[in-house]
Design goal:
Distance between the termini: 31 Å
Structural class: alpha/beta
Strand order of the largest sheet: 1-2-3
Number of domains: 1
Helix content: 25-40%
Largest sheet: 3 strands, parallel
Number of helices: 3
Shape: globular
Radius of gyration: 12 Å
Length: 74
């Protein structure tokens, strides 16, 4: 998985997916659960903004390996 390899080089990454179980099995460190398989970033602008803001917040936060964050509904 690309996110895991980038993390090994020292750059933090966030993996946005609607299947966080698979992301944890692969070994991604920062995972944001998206709302749907077909639209992991959401279908409207407000959803996309919340997910991207949460992902950026994760980049700035030290986390334990395999941390899954939820995006709060409006």
């Amino acid at each position: 998985m690309l996110a895991k390899e980038i993390e090994r080089s020292g750059l933090p990454t966030v993996f946005v997916t609607s299947l966080p179980t698979i992301a944890t099995m692969i070994g991604a460190n920062r995972i944001v659960r998206g709302p749907a398989i077909t639209h992991p970033f959401g279908v409207d602008e407000a959803d996309r903004r919340r997910i991207v803001e949460r992902a950026l917040e994760m980049l700035e936060t030290p986390v334990e390996p395999l941390t899954v964050w939820e995006v709060e509904a409006p």
